[in-house]
């Protein structure tokens, strides 16, 4: 009756009734109830004009489209119309429903829809297109390479998307469809690293796992030198024989290999690739994520990719996850147990975090035991054993058994406590709990194999337990011990065999096999007493129901009892049965899991799961890093459009907004990369006219300005065709800056002539905080004016610069680079890392005289050590394409406790990519990098009020940097 009522509401003409019906149906689906019989009535409303109804209809269709494919096909045309809907949610829902209909006949329609959606203006629709790709591929296209290529083209297009909403989804599609096409990731690698912090949590996990495998194929092992040293210093120990025999038998070739490895490790110091460092740096903040999966993904990335000295940062984050519910704890502890086998030191400070609570489930207790055992060493073993003593009293029998096994492993690994552990386990043999006694016997048996001659009393004590212990494994362990070391207990062993022969038919199969072994060993060592007993046992075994026991008895009879038909093996019976056997090595069960990627389902199950991709080995030689360099052409389309607007603007502009000295720097320069006085007059946007108007500047400057402005007008027309770099820089100045106009540096001062003419109109306001263009409403009123010569000071706020603007174009005299205390200092090298040498730097926001296209970076070196530092310089500069660095002169001597400064010039090439280089002294080299804040890459531009109005009239919809500055100038006036 309820469904009939809903059908009637869906058939009505009122949108309100339809909406109410759809809400009820979707609520039914959410509660897990079946609403598939309503499919025909719902499908009829797919063309409803009410957006709310349409959204809910699409939600319903996504759920049942795969079950009712024939009916869903009737609405294909409606879905296609939905792909053109103005509402982005409708477009995305229509594509989602289409991709849920797994019918081969609509593959071309789906392919076309995905291609169109990949170019949609809405990032939400593009995200849905990325989700549709693996759905289409998995259901229809694995065997169709042509259509697969089309999907790969769409993936390549979406990978270039700069939206965080799309990033995770398209990487998932890449992993499903073409994980082997690693070339698609090269140009998007840095973008994915930088976007990672803002992607949704699900996408972060997908991207991090993909980048982990990518990095293993593109970068060198950061621990390569360490591994070579380990291989060279510690040879493989042989299973049998003493260490002296090993040294004698060692081949000369192996020694040569070790020597070569040591020499290679010393000869080639490892230098981390900047892109490798970028990945580690950008993922580290995600260790603070609230999502356990993200933290686990970052932890496995660091474990597989980071240098050994840096892996420790993940320990605290993983320990924090142990406060979550038991499912998260289980997964985290599985991974921690694997990590502690190779990197035990990183979790040692958090030993108490792995202590077991009474409320923990059994599987969590066992995993914590595993971690505690892996962390045990000579310093903390006493604390851990005291914990184990408490755990043995638990009511959880499985947990107690695991604790006893853990004690055995600790005794095996740490020789100092072996006797203590053995005595403690022997005391457990008097425990009332049979399971505790049985597990103790099994572990004692393994420990006794290491030094049996010292523990004959323990073997005698265990022989007495055969009457009481009924657990088959424990009985079998005791019998094996007595048989293996029967020469240590010659009087007790025959009596044990007599008792076992009586109960042979009632024993378990594993015990019967050990009784036969015991009989054979006693027959070979003490045949007078045990001959008849052995024959009796073998006759019983001959007719046993288990064929393994019958075969064992037949084999042993032929081997130990001499007859005429006895084979050649009977001569060697003693060597076969009484050979020295190596003591068992008690190892962690997690030792075999390290070949699986941490955090994966395969690692959790210890078996390769469907869809698992192997973690690649490190390459022997580093692949070409230039494949990750994004060509400038890829980011030009928007600029070329703007540069054409600049051409129109150049013809109309008569006066620049700022002086000629600031007008020189190109689009890749920061606001502080000005030029010297001699260079500043050489070129300008429209230098000739402005110089004549201002009446300042040298004659040579005027003539050069005039001639160069003529040349600019001629070459502007051919700029796009010829692509001359110098002219591109000059033409695209204001436009490219507008793309990253976040903060405006406040140090560039207007012309000195104007400043001297109106000194009282420029109040000095010092602020340490850089102002943003978005914060204009928050400006405080300027303080009272102070008369200060402009060419002797640096203004420290945007307000001061804007208040002091004048229309003069006179060149500012070059000032010595002496940044104000308000400029922000950055740490380049810490005194601990630099072994006494500390380096700070700041963007001085002054012209860099050797090259006008460079940013001036002032560096301050401080020698905090006791010894002098010599030959301070930079080497091995690693830059992205287009970037340049002008090195500072070598500092030959920096005495202890002294400070020195130097100016470094960097051309960041219109990007925020870091400049990487090595800071070298006479004894050490330190890898450092300088990454500019966006605000340090801005350049001030002069605009008169008339020019501002012209600019506003030409392109009001897309204002350039000059337009925005013009607004500010008008606002302040």
3D architecture notes:
The protein is mainly alpha-helical and 973 residues long. Among the domains are: 3-199, Alpha Horseshoe (Leucine-rich Repeat Variant); 461-589; 825-946, Immunoglobulin-like. The protein is 51% helix and 6% strand. It is built from 46 helices and nine strands. The strands form two sheets. A five-stranded antiparallel sheet has the order 1-2-3-7-5, with no helix packed on it. Strands 6-4-8-9 form a four-stranded antiparallel sheet, with no helix packed on it. Helix 4 (51-64) packs parallel to helix 7 (88-100). The two termini are 75 Å apart. Residues 228-250, 633-820 and 954-973 have low confidence and may be disordered. One of its GO terms (biological process) is intracellular protein transport. It is a peripheral membrane protein. Residues 231-259, 615-770 are annotated as: Disordered. Belongs to the adaptor complexes large subunit family. Residues 643-657, 731-742 have a biased composition (Basic and acidic residues).
């Amino acid at each position: 009756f309820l469904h009939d009522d809903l059908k009637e509401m869906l058939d009505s003409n009122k949108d309100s009734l339809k909406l109410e019906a759809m809400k009820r149906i979707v609520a039914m689906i959410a509660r897990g109830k079946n609403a598939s019989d309503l499919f025909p009535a719902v499908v009829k409303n797919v063309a409803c004009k009410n957006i709310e109804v349409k959204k809910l209809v699409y939600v319903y269709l996504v759920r049942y489209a795969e079950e009712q494919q024939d009916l869903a096909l009737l609405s294909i045309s409606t879905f296609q119309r939905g792909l053109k809907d103005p509402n982005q949610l409708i477009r995305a829902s229509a594509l989602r429903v289409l991709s849920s209909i797994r019918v081969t006949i609509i593959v071309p329609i789906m392919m076309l829809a995905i291609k169109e959606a990949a170019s949609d203006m809405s990032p939400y629709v593009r995200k849905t297109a990325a989700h549709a790709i693996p759905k289409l591929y998995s259901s229809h296209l694995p065997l169709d390479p042509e259509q697969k290529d089309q999907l790969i083209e769409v993936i390549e297009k979406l990978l270039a998307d700069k939206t965080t909403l799309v990033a995770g989804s398209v990487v998932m599609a890449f992993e499903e469809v073409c994980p082997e096409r690693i070339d698609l990731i090269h140009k998007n690698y840095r973008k994915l690293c930088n976007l990672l912090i803002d992607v949704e949590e699900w996408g972060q996990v997908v991207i991090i796992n993909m980048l982990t495998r990518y990095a293993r194929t593109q970068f060198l092992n950061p621990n390569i030198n360490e591994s070579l040293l380990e291989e060279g210093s510690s040879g493989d120990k042989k299973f049998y024989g003493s260490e002296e025999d090993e040294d004698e038998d060692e081949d000369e070739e192996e020694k040569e290999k070790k020597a070569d490895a040591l020499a290679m490790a010393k000869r080639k110091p490892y230098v981390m690739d900047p892109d490798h460092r970028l990945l580690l740096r950008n993922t580290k903040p995600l260790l603070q994520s609230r999502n356990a999966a993200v933290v686990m993904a970052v932890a496995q990335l660091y474990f597989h990719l980071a240098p050994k000295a840096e892996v420790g940062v993940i320990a605290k984050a993983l320990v924090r996850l142990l406060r979550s519910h038991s499912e998260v704890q289980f997964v985290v502890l599985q991974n921690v147990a694997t990590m502690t086998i190779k990197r035990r030191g990183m979790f040692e400070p958090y030993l108490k975090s792995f202590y077991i609570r009474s409320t923990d489930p059994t599987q969590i207790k066992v995993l914590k035991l595993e971690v505690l055992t892996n962390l045990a060493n000579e310093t903390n073993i006493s604390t851990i054993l005291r914990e184990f003593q408490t755990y043995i009293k638990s009511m959880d029998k499985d947990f107690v058994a695991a604790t006893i096994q853990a004690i055995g492993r600790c005794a095996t690994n740490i020789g100092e406590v072996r006797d203590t552990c053995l005595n403690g386990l022997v005391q457990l043999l008097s425990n009332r709990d049979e399971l505790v006694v049985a597990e103790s016997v099994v572990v004692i048996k393994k420990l006794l194999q290491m030094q049996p001659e010292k523990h004959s009393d323990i073997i005698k004590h265990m022989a007495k337990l055969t009457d009481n212990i009924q657990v088959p494994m424990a009985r079998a362990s005791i019998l094996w011990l007595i048989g293996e070391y029967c020469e240590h207990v010659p009087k007790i062993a025959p009596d044990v065999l007599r008792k076992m022969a009586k109960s042979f038919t009632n024993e378990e199969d594993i015990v019967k096999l050990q009784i036969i072994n015991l009989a054979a060993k006693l027959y070979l060592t003490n045949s007078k007493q045990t001959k008849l007993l052995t024959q009796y046992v073998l006759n019983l075994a001959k007719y046993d129901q288990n064929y393994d026991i019958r075969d064992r008895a037949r084999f042993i009879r032929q081997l130990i009892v001499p007859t005429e038909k006895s084979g050649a093996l009977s001569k060697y019976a003693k060597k076969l049965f009484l050979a020295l056997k190596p003591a068992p090595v008690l190892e962690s069960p997690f030792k075999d899991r390290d070949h699986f990627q941490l955090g994966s389902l395969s690692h959790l199950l210890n078996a390769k799961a469907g869809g698992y991709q192997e973690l690649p080995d490190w390459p022997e030689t580093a692949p070409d890093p230039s494949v990750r360099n994004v060509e400038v052409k890829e980011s030009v389309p928007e600029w070329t459009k703007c540069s054409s607007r600049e051409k129109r603007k150049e013809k109309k502009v008569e006066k620049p907004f700022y002086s000629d000295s600031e007008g020189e720097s190109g689009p890749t320069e920061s606001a502080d990369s000005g030029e010297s006085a001699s260079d500043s007059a050489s070129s300008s946007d429209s230098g000739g006219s402005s110089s004549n108007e201002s009446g300042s500047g040298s004659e040579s400057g005027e003539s050069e300005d005039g001639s160069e402005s003529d040349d600019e007008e001629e070459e502007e027309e051919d700029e796009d065709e010829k692509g001359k770099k110098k002219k591109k820089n000059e033409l695209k100045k204001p436009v490219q800056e507008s793309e990253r106009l976040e903060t405006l540096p406040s140090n560039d001062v207007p012309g000195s002539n104007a400043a001297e003419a109106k000194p009282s109109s420029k109040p000095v306001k010092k602020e340490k905080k850089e102002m943003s263009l978005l914060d204009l409403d928050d400006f405080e009123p300027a303080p009272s004016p102070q008369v200060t010569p402009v060419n002797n000071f640096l203004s420290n706020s945007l307000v001061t610069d804007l208040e002091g603007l004048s229309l003069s174009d006179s060149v500012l005299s070059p000032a010595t680079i002496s940044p104000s205390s308000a400029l922000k200092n950055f740490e380049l090298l810490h005194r601990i890392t630099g072994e006494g040498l500390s380096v700070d730097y700041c963007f001085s926001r002054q012209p860099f005289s050797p090259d006008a296209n460079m940013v001036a970076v002032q560096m301050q070196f401080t020698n905090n050590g006791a010894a002098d530092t010599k030959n301070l310089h930079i080497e091995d500069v690693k830059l992205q394409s287009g970037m340049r660095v002008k090195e500072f002169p070598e500092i030959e001597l920096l005495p202890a406790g002294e400070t020195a400064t130097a100016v470094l010039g960097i051309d960041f090439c219109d990007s925020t990519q870091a400049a990487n280089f090595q800071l070298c002294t006479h004894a050490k080299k330190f890898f450092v990098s300088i990454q500019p804040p966006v605000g340090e890459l801005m350049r001030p531009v002069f605009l008169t009020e008339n020019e501002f109005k012209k600019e506003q009239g030409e392109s009001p919809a897309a204002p350039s940097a000059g337009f925005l500055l013009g607004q500010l100038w008008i606002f302040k006036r």
